[in-house]
Amino acid sequence: MKTIADLQAIRDKIKTRILMRKEHGYKHEGPASETHFRSHVMVCAGTGCVAGSSEFIISKFNEEVAKHGLQDDIMVVRTGCFGLCALGPIVIVYPEGVFYSMVTVDDVPEIVTEHLKNGNIVKRLIYAETLCKDEHILPLDEVGFYKKQMRLALRNCGLIDPECIDEYIANDGYVALEKCLTEKKPSDVIDIVKASGLRGRGGAGFPTGLKWEFAAKSQSDDGQKFVACNADEGDPGAFMDRSVLEGDPHVIIESMAIAAYAIGGNHGYVYVRAEYPIALNRLQKAIDDARAYGLLGKNILGTGFDFDMEIRPGAGAFVCGEETALIRSIEGNRGEPRPRPPFPAVKGIFGKPTVLNNVETYANIPQIILNGAEWFQGIGTEKSKGTKVFAVGGKINNVGLVEVPMGITLREVIYEIGGGIPKGKEFKAAQTGGPSGGCIPAQHLDAGIDFESLTALGSMMGSGGLIVMDEDNCMVDIAKFFLEFTVDESCGKCPPCRIGTKRMYEILERITEGKGEKDDIEKLEALAKSIQTSALCALGQTAPNPVLSTIKYFRDEYEAHVCDKKCPAGACQAMAKYGITAEKCKGCTLCVKACPVGAITGERKAVHVLDAEKCIKCGACVPACPFKAIYK
Amino acid sequence: MAKNETTGILAQETAELLKEIILKHNGYGRRDAIMAVLNDVQAKLGYLPYEAQRYIAVEMDIPLAEIFGIVTFYSGFSLNPVGKYKIAVCMGTACYVKDAHKILAKIEQKCGIKAGETSEDGLFTIVATRCIGACGLAPVITINENVYGKLHLEDVDKVLEKYK
Q: Which of A312, A349, A398 to probe by mutation at the B interface, max B CB count within 10 Å?
């Protein structure tokens, strides 16, 4: 078991290792040692980059480094997400801060020989934006993608080895816990969190400090209370919680221990999606390591405080992201929600008072304790303090994870950080909040993003997925996509959600098939309103949002589907009508060969004819025609 | 039901495996371990056969009906064996806006089965899966442990060829 002095000794010992990665141009005095290597090769091992075989890249680096006898000088670090997933797999070499993008296993020998051995940067692999004309390397925080970002929740992602507890400790890890246990009363901790203005990052934005206070004040018959972490990140397109678990698992342990101390609990549960195997493994390792150091268990740091925690894997049910459903699932039941109140802070896991926060919320806590409530107050907008992590995806150049101060505009996120829309297409809408959120159109690009503004626009913060759509995406089709999701994921307990969303889906289905009826749009709106007001849990209550927001901003598109039986974006296959422009057709017969049903006929060098009766609208002919003679 | 009745149905080694998993999660007398136990059994056996559910029910003292209720509630649990290669097509939003549904249709056509089905030769199972969080690689599919990202319709043949 470690004491506070032991932890400090670890910090002193490997502080320089972290400094070298944090400070651009940092020079280490003295020779390389087991705690401070000459160069650090940071390889991203987040899920995105692992899918791009970064594990093989890591083994290849180790192999090549050993081959050149450099193992005492060079440290190969498996680290968390750098955020710029579009350029993965990513390798960053310190102290130079060279950012290599889209690295393959075959590139590794060259990086080792040229860069690490001979000191020549491999220019062909470098992320172009980081290389200045005079060939010096731009620090990452001056590059477009990072310039406007502010990494608080993600502060350790890409900076430390998530599987090494010492590196976490070295970057101020567990200092906040020490401070709470030795200098602060539980009520002081709650006061700081309350004063900071931190709000839950999982969706609704409830003030975290208030939640803790409710749980602290609630009594249970046997004195037992629980803390829990919601890592059931189900919103499609959101992966910030996964990245925190993968890149900085100890912050969750430290934070949950602080929460337990504040409310008077001794046991914690982390509910993680089973679809996140890497996150599950790293978190388990972190728990085991923390236990070995005595940071979990009895008498933590000799202060008399006991706390331990365990992981509960989910099994693929979106509704378990809802807090009462999650609690049912932790208890070992079907994850069906129940009405609130009582809220979990009063009756939670096994009927005991429970604090349940989202991963990103927890990731902010140690920094708030260390830097103070005023510091956190100074970031963000009046009612939404701090930063928010967004998973930016869809039709955008810099797909990835970005953390920005609240209040930043969508335009900045999409065009400055995100690098704009690929292939010169027009921005059409940004979808936030997943199946509970809505689509924000171009006229609101300059709205500042915070909890209130997004709700006012008919969307919501949600967990932070931000999917960008361009002119080729049909908004009715997108609404249908989300409804299909909710229909599938509805637990079936309450009729408004079970039956209502299904009816809405059926209406959307017939609209996108060109069979829309006159008052379908009004029917959708009426159904939506009654589901919003009568469904049991947040999943049902928010399920109509994608439909309502798209009707609100893109009503003309709905009308085109219903009245003119046309899909303006050309995305709804069933409504597409294919034909051949006679002037462009050269009679090459390529489309005839491409058509799977023989709907196109025509002799060589004669204008071809498309039989609309036979056509199954598969679209196979369009790319086959070299003269763009086939229209849709 | 007497305890010894259940072991007769399962192969002895499977019963031992299940017991080991229950012990690992400290599941005797602890109902809340059930999700972790079922997850591990699903991973080891590839599905949750009726006999295994029955064995777990008796060992952990949870009504079989409730276990069945849990197994059928969560989409991560399966009552049927899956094919040798499980093709999961991500249908998350980022993939969807990049035409994942077309990729799925092509794979379904190539394998001659629909999403959720297993081919007769037991080679392929296709599932349309929830967001796997690899949005940087959209559209993305996984075949067992292997990930194929930034797929184009033309790539589907080449990818499937490796598994035939």
A: A312
Cβ A48–B94 below 8 Å, yes or no?
no
Q: Does B39 touch chain A (CB under 8 A)?
A: yes
Residue A514 within any structural domain of the chain: yes
Among the three residues B73, B98, B131, which one is the final residue of a domain in this structure? B73
Full-model pTM: 0.92
CB < 8 Å & 24+ apart, contacts of A556-565: A557/A474, A557/A475, A557/A476, A558/A475, A558/A476, A558/A511, A558/A521, A559/A521, A561/A476, A561/A511, A561/A512, A561/A514, A561/A516, A562/A511, A562/A516, A562/A517, A562/A518, A562/A520, A562/A521, A563/A516, A565/A514, A565/A516
Contact status of B152 with chain A (Cβ, < 8 Å): no
Is the CB of A86 less than 8 angstroms away from the CB of B35? no
ipTM of the complex: 0.87
Domain shared by A406 and A299, yes or no: no
Tell me if A422 is assigned to some domain.
Answer: yes
Domain coverage including residue B110: 85-161
Among the partner residues B35, B73, B134, nearest to A312 by beta-carbon distance: B35
Pairing of β B124-129 and β B85-90: parallel
Q: Which of A357, A377, A397 is the last residue of a domain?
A: A377
Q: Hey, which residues 106-145 in chain B have their CB within 8 Å of chain A?
A: 129-138, 140
Q: How far apart are the first and last CA of chain B?
A: 46
pLDDT digits (tens, 9 = 90+) for A192-246: 999 999 999 987 899 999 999 999 999 999 999 999 999 999 888 899 999 999 9
> Quick check: is B33 in a domain?
yes
Residue range B51-98, pLDDT digits in tens: 999 999 999 999 999 999 999 999 889 998 888 899 999 998 888 888
Pair B73, B45: CB distance under 8 Å: no
Looking at A437, A470, A503, the residue that finishes a domain is A470
Same-domain pairing of A463 and A558: no
